[in-house]
Amino acid sequence: MKGIVFTEFLDLVEEKFGLDVVDKIITESNLESGGVYTSVGTYSFSEMLQLLQHLSEHTGIAIDDLLLVYGEHFFSVIETSYPGLLAIYQSPIEMLSSIESHIHVEVRKIYPDAELPTFKILEKTDSSLVMLYNSSRAMHHFGLGLMNKTFEHFNTTATIVLEKLNKDGTEVKFLINKK
């Protein structure tokens, strides 16, 4: 997993819960990196799981809810760091339906060894989208947070239903209807 995911996560934890909580979750985790991350480095997904688990224990917030908030936060990172990427889209449906064909292509230019989830478009209209999410990492709520902020970016709203297709959440169907 790319380091930017870790650095931004720890920034969010510090912003929302304080530096002492950042220190606690790093100290309580058995991290091969020692909790020292660079945005371009590559780190084990197990480190993220440990950090999330300890944050959940300290805050009483479910991991899926933490990932949702983190996904929403990460969208602001994309807006700030890569505004040109978002500027080419006219609608949230257009943007979300191009994750595989454009957005992930651009991410791989910056982070060639990034392990990204896949999104397969099952149905698409001007106001709806059905997408299949596959990943060895069950971070679908992170994706949901990004989707929520995508609609907000375009000053519109949507109903997004997340349907787990397997128990561990590595395969999820997103049913998206623009309001």
From TrEMBL:
InterPro entries xref list: H-NOX_domain_sf, Heme_NO-bd, NO_sig/Golgi_transp_ligand-bd
Listed Gene3D superfamilies: H-NOX domain (3.90.1520.10)
Residue intervals of the Heme NO-binding domain: 2-160
The protein's name: Guanylate cyclase-related protein
MF terms (GO), sorted A to Z: heme binding
